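Protocol step 4 of 6.
Sequence for LysR substrate-binding protein (Microbacterium oleivorans) entered exactly as in the expression construct, tag removed. Do not edit the line below.
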Amino acid sequence: MSRDRLADLLPHLPLLDALGEDEHVTRAAETLGVPQPTVSRALRQLESRLGVTLVIPDGRGIRLTEAARRMLPAVRVSLRAAQDALDSLDGSRSTVGLAFQNSLGEHLVPRLVRRLREERPDIRIELWQGARDACLAELDSGRTDLAIVSGAAATHPAHQSVHLYDEPLVVVVPADHRLATAKRITLADVFGETHVTLKPGYGLRRTLEQLFAAEGVALDIAFEGDDIRTLHGLVAAGLGIAVGPEVPHPLDGCVQRPIDDPRAARDMGVVFRPGARPTVLDDVIAVLVDLTRP
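Step 5 output, structure tokens:
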């Protein structure tokens, strides 16, 4: 991009970020604290100077063009970098956006936050929690800088990753189930059961489907949910069994048993965008590696 086009773009980064939130000119104007005609006028001027269309009519509203969507992640990264640069003038903190899978909210992420608060008070973490695919979407959008997910190495080529650890999976069965007292549980035992599991898009669902597909076995599902604790409650009620990470303090009526197969595990890693990145991201990654070291 030429210097002139860059100079035209930089003052409008907050405008593009605001439009990207929900693709609505009036709400973007409210976010920016300016009249709606000012936003419309600035948008037309920016399109003219860049020589590209950024929004198109969509019903009674607008929709971002593909060109605008391609710009949006870099726009958001640039805004955070600019804020960090301003913060550095008075010794304030750098901000790192972190997305993480739901199952990491009880242990790993709190440990990370505690360590950073104790040892790196100059780093402020903005957290976002959700399913694996949603975490990666947040990373791609530029809203976050890092994502801790399962199957990190298997994300698309636009990502880079660092492996953190392999997490063994257990089978959760009702207390009166035949597997509750079995001396040894194999994947073959798990394959023959009806399951309660997470919805598509969750890392655990992806892992379960891969295990079944590797053996050419159909996955019999009685329920798809959004929360591991809900699955355990339905296991206790007898609706099916569940496969997932071991949780502390299992619900009454449930038994967690190890699966005697090295394939019954999920690989956890931290994912980030390729290319040059602020040193602070490497600092956070280093803390994660240290926290998950055997």
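Step 6, annotate. The CA atoms of residues 211 and 263 lie 8 Å apart.
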